[in-house]
């Protein structure tokens, strides 16, 4: 896939955690661009159905990403139903806040099972399917928390920093036919903004929060770029990571 694949029409692209928030925004943007969007969800069935309808009746795939067996089954089903996979957007994630002195093993595993382990096994299974049809594009959604340390989110920061390094390692492992890149969102609110988020917005050089559409546009760049763009991290954060 050395040439630029700017047209997403007909491309089969799976978005994990696509029922709500950033994942929903990505799915909608991909559908607008003509992609055959596949929507993964965990528990948010009603939201997933709504997103599906807004994407023209996009197929739904339910899987508990904590379980590798369910990840494998989802990709096997996609292969059987569509015969190919052109793009994968690993968006599903969890977020909790704890004093590091109080984090338990269960707290740690709750975050890492989805934020890092599931990303790896989804990349693995997605790449296997992509190779059957000549290659593809993988985009992992990381976080500003994978770039900058947050004292009360040590476990989350570790998981997202892991996603960034995993992206770089898999970009080498899957080259040249499959690219692997990462988008790190800044403050992207979907409801009331608390004092902590307000402080982050105030510290953002762009002087505003971002939108799901802006994250989606960055994802689309990686999905349509040539295979000379791989192993990269793009922070879409209004410049906050540079402060």
Give a description of the structure.
- The protein is an alpha/beta fold.
- It has helices at residues 21-32, 45-54, 68-82, 105-131, 154-174, 195-203, 212-224, and strands at 12-15, 36-41, 60-62, 87-90, 136-141, 178-185, 233-236.
- A seven-stranded parallel beta sheet has the order 3-2-1-4-5-6-7, with helices on both faces.
- The longest helix has 27 residues, at 105-131.
- The chain is globular, with a radius of gyration of 17 Å.
- The N and C termini lie far apart (36 Å).
- The model has no long low-confidence stretch (mean pLDDT 95).
List the helices and strands and how they pair.
Layout: E1 12-15, H1 21-32, E2 36-41, H2 45-54, E3 60-62, H3 68-82, E4 87-90, H4 105-131, E5 136-141, H5 154-174, E6 178-185, H6 195-203, H7 212-224, E7 233-236
Parallel strand pairs: 1-2, 1-4, 2-3, 4-5, 5-6, 6-7
Helix pairs in contact: 1-7, 3-4, 4-5
The radius of gyration over CA amounts to: 17 Å
The shape, in one word, is globular
What class do helices, strands and sheet pairing give?
Answer: alpha/beta
Strand order of the largest sheet: 3-2-1-4-5-6-7
Order of helices and strands: EHEHEHEHEHEHHE
Q: Gap between N and C termini, in Å?
A: 36 Å
The biggest beta sheet reads: 7 strands, parallel
Please report the number of helical segments: 7
What are the low-pLDDT stretches, counting only 5+ consecutive residues below 50? none
Q: Determine the fraction of residues in helical runs and give it as a percent range.
A: 40-55%
**How confident is the prediction overall: mean pLDDT?**
95
């Amino acid at each position: 896939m050395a040439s630029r694949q700017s047209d997403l029409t007909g491309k089969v692209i799976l978005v994990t955690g696509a029922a709500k928030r950033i994942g929903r925004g990505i799915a909608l943007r991909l559908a607008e661009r003509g992609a055959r969007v596949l929507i993964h969800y965990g528990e948010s069935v009603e939201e997933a159905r709504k997103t599906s309808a807004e994407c023209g009746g996009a197929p739904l795939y339910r899987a508990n990403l904590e379980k590798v067996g369910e990840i494998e089954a989802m990709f096997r089903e996609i292969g059987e139903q569509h015969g190919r996979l052109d793009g994968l957007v690993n968006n599903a994630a969890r977020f909790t806040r704890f004093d590091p002195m109080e984090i338990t093993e269960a707290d740690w595993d709750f975050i890492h099972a989805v934020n890092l382990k599931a990303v790896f096994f989804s990349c693995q299974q997605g790449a296997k399917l992509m190779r059957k049809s000549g290659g593809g594009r993988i985009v992992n959604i990381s976080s500003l928390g994978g770039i900058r340390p947050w004292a009360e989110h040590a476990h989350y920061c570790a998981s997202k920093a892991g996603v960034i390094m995993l992206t770089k390692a898999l970009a080498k492992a899957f080259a040249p036919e499959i690219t692997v890149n990462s988008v790190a969102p800044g403050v992207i609110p979907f409801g009331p903004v608390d004092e902590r988020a307000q402080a982050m917005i105030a510290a953002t050089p762009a002087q505003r929060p971002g939108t799901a559409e802006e994250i989606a546009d960055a994802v689309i760049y990686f999905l349509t770029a040539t295979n000379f763009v791989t192993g990269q991290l793009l922070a879409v954060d209004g410049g906050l990571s540079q402060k």
